Structure formats: structure tokens, C-alpha cells
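Sorry to interrupt, but I need a hand with the structure work. Leave the record below and I will have a look:
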Amino acid sequence: MATVEEEYKNIQASPNRPIPGQSLTNDPDNPAPFERAPEFTSVHKASEYLFNKLIQPEAYSNAMQAVSDGVAIMDITQSILFMEFQEGAFNPDLMLMLVEPLAYMIIALAERLDLEMVIYRGEDEDDDEEERILGTTMASEKLEKIRSASRSGVVPAGIITPDMEEKIEELPEIKPEQNLLDAPKASEPPADSLLANPKGVKE
């Protein structure tokens, strides 16, 4: 899966790429999606929107298959956010604010299926203090928090809402390369799941 930086380089190298200032000559009555007012302006509403799209059958199956195949969580996150930005869902500033919430959502879904996760490419060999995410740098402290969540099963409070937890529990427990639509409905999340009740606590 290509990163945003790779996609940008491909666009730059394309002979069909727009020339500087071309957008100023576009028809103002027919703007591109990302040239219009964004659909969402708050992290909360945009997070709900992304989550509901992420758990749609095809998107859910594709995302979990990508995680199972070893695609980095941050690569999946970048691809989803960049695509939604191009469709006019939010502006660049809000897109950057959604990196962490979306990454945690993907982690919660993957952890429930007990999938091994890679947070970003080369993380085991990477000694840098920062990582490039959507063309900007992401501090190592934030990346380490995300990595800790994938290892410990503890997502920061407020990221996964009770409504999201309920919807996740209803998702089928697919296996790698299994057809999502043929998968049985889930009953209880695994004991080590982010969504499982603490030991000794009953519903």
C-alpha cells in the first residue's frame, strides 16, 4: 500500500499533473470536492463518520486483511484519511487531528481479532525520534503510546465510545482470507480484547 509521500511523488512525476495556479482557472460553479467547504469541522463528528465507514463489510474486511498481511497501521490510517480528504470530508488541519483516533480504532478492531500489528514500517529498526505521517512529523511519544495500546490492549479513554464498543461486539470475527459475509456473528470478545469486561466484572 503506497504512503501519502509516495502518492505525492507519483503525482509530481506524472506528465498529467496540474500546473501551478491551475486551480484558479477551475469553474467556481463546479469545484473539486476538496475545494468545497468540508463536510466535518469537529474531531468528534469526523471520528464517528470514519468509524462507521470503517466497520462497513467491505472496508472492515479489507482493513483487517491488510493488518493481517503486515501492512502498517499508520499506512492504513494515512490512506483512509487522504482518500476522505480528497472527497471533501475534512480540511488538512482536521485530517492531521484524526490520525491518532483513527489509528486507535483500527487497533481496537485488529486486537479483537487477535491480529499481530505493525504500527509503522521499520519500527523495530527505527532509531529516529519522529516519523513522517501525512507529510508532517509525528513525535515518538505519540507513536509509542499507539504502540503501547497495540501491545497492552488499553486504548486512551474517549477514543472508543460505548456506542462504538457495542457496534464492534456485533462485528463478525473474521479470519485472514475468510469472506466477511460468510463469517459467523460474534458473541463475546476475546478475554484479552480491548472491549472485554475487566476480570470479575459482569454485565
